[in-house]
Every structure is written in structure tokens, then in C-alpha cells.
Predict the structure.
Amino acid sequence: MKVTLIEPRPAGKHVFSTVKMPRLGLPILGTILKEKGHQVNLIYEATEEIRLTDLINTDLVSISTTTSTIVEAYRIADFARQHDIPVVMGGAHVTFMVEEALQHCDYVCRGEADETFNQLVSCIEKGELPVDVPGVSYWQDDQMIHNPMPDWVNVDEVPFPDLSLLKDIKMSTYPVMTSRGCPFDCTFCSVTPMFGRKYRYRNTESVLEELKQYRDKQVFFVDDNFTANPHHSKELLRQMISRNIRPRWWCTQVRTDAARDEELLRLMRDAGCGTVFIGMESINPETLKKYNKKQDVEDIEYCIKQFHRFGILVHGMFVFGGDDDTVQTIHDTLEFAIKNHIDTLQFMILTPLPGTRTYADMEKEGRILTHDWNLYDAHHVVYQPRLMSAEELQKETIKAFHKFYSPGRILGNLFRTGIRSVAFRAVGFWLVRSWESENSWYYQVLKKLASHNSSDSLSNRISRSISSFRFKNLRYVTTDPVLNIEVSQQDETFLINLKGYLNDFSLGETFKILSSHIPSFYQNLVINLDGVNFTSEKVALQFVNHLNRMAARARQIQIRVPQANDLITRVIAKYNLRIPGFAITRSLNS
Ligand code: B12
Ligand code: SF4
């Protein structure tokens, strides 16, 4: 069978935007399918465009999901299904939002799929229902069927991911997994609901074998808690050193408790560890308790000192917005990070990810402000905090980020941890600023929310029908004899109504008007083409190209085309264009 595997790109910038590295799920699943004789086309959309033929000259489209990329995943899935290609989805978001996902796809593989995906593909190939495949959810006679969850995978049976499946991607850092799962149980984390609390680590020989290809490269051990079993980690590190199977440089995620074991630190250093990513989460003891983090502020301070003593850079990961956090907590954390010379950091915003206890609690308490999953990237406030306003949490977090990555501080750790620290801080400086310019509209949304105290104004209006728009705030109307353009705005969505003929001239005018009336970054744009006639195919092609360029500045763009005459879709198919950066819906009234 021909199978296209896709990891969708995120909607906006995030703290790791410069890291071009896919998650390991699809390379592993692709390797398994290839071994079984299937033809695999793997697309990592962050670096590669999806062409129409990728979606329609295939027997199956399979998409990997997280919460912050799910809107794009659904868009791709809808597009494939409009062309009658079956779609499978798997990964962290759909595992916990299966009913929602089945509105967009034919099958969901819940949980780990190393053993189940291949079985599902065989069923699809034979035209059978996957009645016996664990973890699969699917439709049968308009009813959703949910098979029982699969057992945890034996990680030693998972093949090495064949990263050559990823065409044309220049990876600066290569992902290697030595374990899955984490014995802890932090309330906001979706790792344990997805991969379990039983820490499963791979056989040392097998990891070393995989590592041999990366001797002159940089590696990220993508484990959630690389040193959860220190005895095992030390064995791996010793072998890496004695057999000289060391990447040129590597980084990984650990907990603060790793720093209490000096032998472990020495081995990490000698094996080439350059940076550790540490879930510090908070310096508010009450928040640490509520997150169930099982660490103290002293642990955090001690671990920074210790890793630095061994020449290892520290990336601190903080989460603001716990029920005991105030604006002061954010200020104190910034001061703490500077005082303790953390090399780089991320100030994230608590995010209720489906599957976590935080999500369940916030849903129950009615504190979730929006289910626009594009905003669930831990950089946007999507819930009502307890001791500050949503707007305060948003503003103060970004302000703290700004201050940490200020020009004056870029050189701060040069003599402590060297030039890498400077380079990473410079990237942070750039990212924070470009994030802000892309997202300033969100401050306005949160301000409105605070004054109205209504969660409704944040709901994802693009999913609503156009008829629910009231044309208040009319921005622009032209009664040009050729084309009539109406631009209106309702909250975070712009609605454009076009009526008449789109030719070379009126097309240019239309986009000129749009760029002068719509801010440089915005959330939703709906363009109604119900009353439009394109004067030629060439104009339709130009329209698509213009819109794709606009899509780079929008969270979501949707165009509504007449059911009977969808020239846009025909043009995309005829010229095998990349799948558009906008969604196409067909209006019923034509
Ligand atoms: C490496 C990593 C990164 C890298 C690379 C990211 C990337 N390309 O997405 C970097 C550092 C850049 C990063 C960034 C972020 N990350 Co990250 N990251 C990870 C990490 C540690 C490992 C990923 C991995 O390789 N896992 C191992 C493989 C085997 O698992 P998998 O890909 O999920 O695949 C398995 C199953 O899910 C399933 N499956 C997956 N896809 C599919 C598809 C099909 C068709 C099927 C059938 C099955 C299937 O089968 C696979 C095999 O069992 C995970 C934690 C984790 N344990 O997964 C977090 C994780 C994925 N990240 C997370 C988050 C929140 C982020 C950020 C938003 C945070 C931030 N603001 O910085 C950003 C956004 C990234 C983005 N793309 O938008 C969350 C996502 C949670 C969620 N529910 O959505 C996770 C789970 C961590 C957590 N604490 O909860 N991340
Ligand atoms: S946040 Fe880290 S320590 Fe806590 S459960 Fe998740 S992976 Fe484990």
C-alpha cells in the first residue's frame, strides 16, 4: 500500500521554533511499514510543503497529532477525505479527544502504536474492519467503536527509526529515544497519560548500536526523564565513554534530583552532555506542591550549581499560572533565574492539555476560556487563572521572557558556560520579539475578555456559520462596478464578503484593500466567495498564491466557495499545487 505519513506544522512561533526535528513516532511507524513492504512517504510539514499529489496519489493518509498542531492536522485530514482518501490519526491529542478526531478521520490509533498501526494498515488494505486491533477507534454504521487500549510496548522491539525517510531535511540535532514513560505524575503533564508511569528503558547494546551513526553529530535524547533509573543511565554512559560511541554533543531532559548524584554528573559530562533541560516549573513552594512535582526550590538552586560545576548548560523550564501564583511569582522567578545564572529558559503558561488532570479540573470548574487548540502551545493563556487576570498572566510572562533575553544579558554567562550559552540566548532574544509581533492581537482579545468577563468572546468563531456574524464594525465597502468588497470584524475574526467578478485588476485591488484593513498578524479570516466569478483560471491561480501568502500571517483562513462551481479546488488539483494554507468549505445555498 502507498501510505503518506504527516507531522503537521504548528500555527505560530514557539520557544523551539528554530529546532527542526520531528517527533520519533512517524519515523518509527514508517520504518515498520517499510519493513512490511509498504511504500512510505513521510512529510515533516515544518520543513516541507504538502503537495496535492501527496494526499491523493496515495492509499492512506496518516497524521501525527499534538494539541497545538491539531487544527492543521484536521485541515489536512479534511482535505484528504474530500478526495476520498482514508485517514488515520494517532498521537497525544487524538488519544484523549477521540470523538472530536473521528469527525475528521476514519480511524484513530489511541496510545502507543508501534504494534497496532501495522495491524490497522493490514485491515484497511484487506477492506476489513479493525475489530481486533487494540487502541483503534473507528466508525461502524454511524456508531463509534472504541477497542480496548493496547498494552505498553516493549521498547526493545521497536526498530531504529529510519530517518532517511525524511527527505531534504537538514537536521542539526538527531533524536534518539532510550526510554519511554516517567515514574512521576505531575498534574499538567501529558506524558504519563500517554506513555505511562512505568519507566521502560532500552537495552544498552541496542542504544549504542543506534548511536554509532551519530559520532560526529548532535543528538537529543528525547526521553522525558533520561536519568529516571540512574543505575541504567550510568551503564549506558560508561559504555558510551569506554567504547567512544559519543555524539559530538548531546542534550536531554532530566529532573533536578539527577544533580544529587555526582558520579552521574561526571559520566554525563565525560560522555559529551552539553545541555540539560530541567522541569523547574516554579519557585513558589505551594505551586510545586499543587503540580505534584515532588521537588523543592532548594533542589532547583542546587541542581543549577551542580550542572554548571560540571560544565553542563542548564535550560530551565518554568510553568506560570498555578492557582497559587501571582504577578509577583513571575517577577520573583525572573529574579531567581538571573541570580542563579540559568543559561536559557522557557517561561511557559500553564496549559490544560487533554488527558491531564489539569484539563479535567479546569473543565469541571468551567475555567477554560477557549478550545481553539492552536492556542494550546503554552505561550497563550487559555484558562482563567485564580489570583491574576488572564491578561496579566499573558503580559507578565512575555515581559519576563523579554527581560531575561534582553540584549544586556546575552553575554551574561560567557565566562561561566561559554559561547553556546551566548548563542542560545541570542536565539531566545530573536524568538521572543518575533513571537510578540505575531501575537499582539491576543492581548486585545484577553483585555476584552477581562472587561466582559465572558468566555464566549474567545470561542473559536471560525467554526461558526457565517450567518451568525453581525456586520457591526463595518470597515470598508466599495461599490466598484466590477467587485463589491465588504470587510467586517467581529472580535478576533475578519470576514470578507466578495461579490462580482475577479479579474487581474480587481484581484490586485482586493488584496491591496485586505492588507491595508487587516492588521499584520491576525487570528481568523473568513472569505466568502459565494457571489464571485473568476474571469479566468489564471486569476484563480493567483488568488490561491495571494491567499497562501496571507495564510503565513493568520491563525486560520477559511474560504467559502459555491458548491456548484469550485474553481479553486479544480485549479489546485490541475497544477498539483501545495495543499493550501487555508481551509475550503462549500456553501450549501448555491
Ligand atoms: C522531542 C519533543 C519536542 C521537540 C520536537 C517537536 C516536534 N517535532 O513536535 C521540540 C523540543 C522542538 C518540542 C517542542 C514542543 N513541544 Co514537545 N516533545 C518532545 C518529546 C519530548 C518527545 C517526542 C517524541 O519523539 N516522542 C517519542 C515518540 C515515539 O512518540 P510519538 O511521536 O508521540 O509517537 C507515538 C504515539 O504518539 C503514536 N503516534 C504518534 N503519531 C502517530 C500517528 C499515527 C498515524 C499513528 C497511528 C500513531 C501515532 O505512536 C507513536 C509510537 O508509539 C515529547 C514527549 C513525548 N514523550 O513524546 C514532547 C511533547 C510532544 N511536546 C509537547 C509540547 C507541549 C511541545 C511544545 C508546544 C512546547 C513548547 N511550547 O515548547 C513545543 C511545540 C512543538 C510543535 N511542533 O509545535 C507535549 C505535547 C502535548 C500534547 N498533548 O499536545 C509533549 C507530549 C510533552 C509533554 N510534556 O506533554 N518538543
Ligand atoms: S513533567 Fe516531567 S517529571 Fe513530571 S510527569 Fe511529566 S515527564 Fe515526568
